[in-house]
Amino acid sequence: MRGVDPTRLSLGLCVLILLVVCAAAAPSKPQAQRLVIGLDLSASNPLVAKPSFAQKLAKRVGKRIRALPLRSTVLIRTFGDSDGTRNALRINEVVSARNRPETIAASVELLIASVPQLVTDGRLKTQSSTHIIGFIKTMHLAIGECRTPTTFILLSDGLEDSEYARLKKPGAHLPHLDIRAPQDKRFKCDELQILGLGEGLPRQADVERLRTEWQSWASGDGPFQRFSGLRDW
Which of 10-19, 51-60, 131-140, 224-233 ranks highest by mean pLDDT? Predict the structure, then answer.
């Protein structure tokens, strides 16, 4: 039986090591993300009546969309009342080589900036209550899981006005409950963002109360890892 050529063995080992090193050094593709964008059409939300504020929100959301990697998804819905027939706006976009993030961002910016005019023209209807938790619950059930990095961006003043809570009332609190379905409790979504939190409220103390309530609800026993509520940026 002939022996193994040590030169050939060494050469093969070098090739194997080189392949391992090259694989480790190769840049990994950014992981696809999911954005759920909710437009609060309740009458208390300045988005529906202030064009300058709508434009400000549009630029903030557009910047976030432009940073998305390929295969990411953008879901846009309206919310307010619990009556789903009043929230028929449903837009689903997937970032691809043909549907670039900057193209999606431009379209979404135009939509958000146009909300006050769409309300004035009667193409969108303002609503009398604000079911924020109900909206998040509905979308959680629709997307099914948060293994994919998922951020909810709500353009809302954060004033929940539903059977869960009436945050306009002093001393009102959000309930501590996990709205995820049992099979979805393995994963939390990345972040809940509320842009315009407390907008229109006269006292900073009221804004901070809202921020505390949503922080506790979202990232405590709730369905998110983090919460951010912005009024000025």
Answer: 51-60
Identity at 39, one-letter amino acid code: L
- Neighbour-count burial of 61, counting CB atoms closer than 10 A to its CB (0-12 exposed, 13-18 middle, 19+ buried): buried
Q: At what angle do helices 101-113 and 51-66 cross, to 10 degrees?
A: 170
Query: How many other CB atoms are there within 10 angstroms of residue 195's CB atom?
Result: 24
Q: How far apart are CA 231 and CA 207, in angstroms?
A: 8
More confident of the two residues 74 and 27 = 74
pLDDT confidence of residue 165:
96
| Chain CA centroid to CA 192, Å | 6
Nearest to 200 by CA among 12, 56, 43: 43
Cα separation of 54 and 40, whole Å? 11
Cβ contact 15:129 at 8 Å: no
Closest CA to 37 of 58, 14, 51: 58
214, amino acid identity: W
CA–CA dist 93, 66 (Å, integer): 13
Counting DSSP H helices and E strands in the chain, the numbers are: 6, 6
Architecture of the 34-230 domain: 3-Layer(aba) Sandwich (3.40)
| pLDDT single digits (tens) 109-165 | 999 999 999 999 999 999 999 999 999 999 988 888 888 999 999 999 999 999 999
Total-model pTM: 0.86
